[in-house]
């Protein structure tokens, strides 16, 4: 039977490696496949008992080394040799998918000029996303006019952002305030925490919401 995605949605989770608890948005859920392989469950909908690990690759490495998965599942658990990289790719895909959904919902502004125009409007922007291969000059200009906007920079390439929104050369993207921005920020923070790279938040990192802090530090 498929696990309900709404079950205990707001409850905290405990990391099997550190024992620390926190908001589930800061964790990655794992399940055992029928053949005993540790499998990430990014949608948190796969059936079976789940094991939760802080969204931090060093913590995941510790869980693997200490055989925390076997202890949690009370069974021999086979950990794929590429699990660390696989989780990074999975978290990246989840965040980029949220960016694509924001485009479909009409909550995404693309391009340097479009972002400048939107920043002058009352609604403004909730999040500004810059590709890792954006020009230094373009980034400097946008930083100057978006001081009160959360900026996520250098975690997605131009190619990744372009494919996520369905084509074009997407170097800069802005999310309008609302559900799409909230969803994208949660998934992006989880990816950034996993990589342990707060520098990716750029010059506006001070506006980072407290409820997204890394519970494993």
Brief characterization of the structure:
The protein is an alpha+beta fold.
- Please name the CATH topology of the largest domain: 60s Ribosomal Protein L30, Chain: A
Q: How is the main sheet built?
A: 4 strands, mixed
Order of helices and strands: EEEEEHHHEHEHEHEH
Radius of gyration: 18 Å
Which blocks of ≥5 consecutive residues have pLDDT under 50? 197-217
CATH class of the largest domain: Alpha Beta
Beta strands, count:
9
Q: What is the typical, i.e. mean, pLDDT?
A: 86
Which structural category do the helix and sheet elements fall into? alpha+beta
Shape annotation: elongated
Helix content: 25-40%
Number of structurally distinct domains: 2
Q: Count helical runs.
A: 7
Determine the CATH superfamily of the largest domain. Ribosomal protein L30/S12
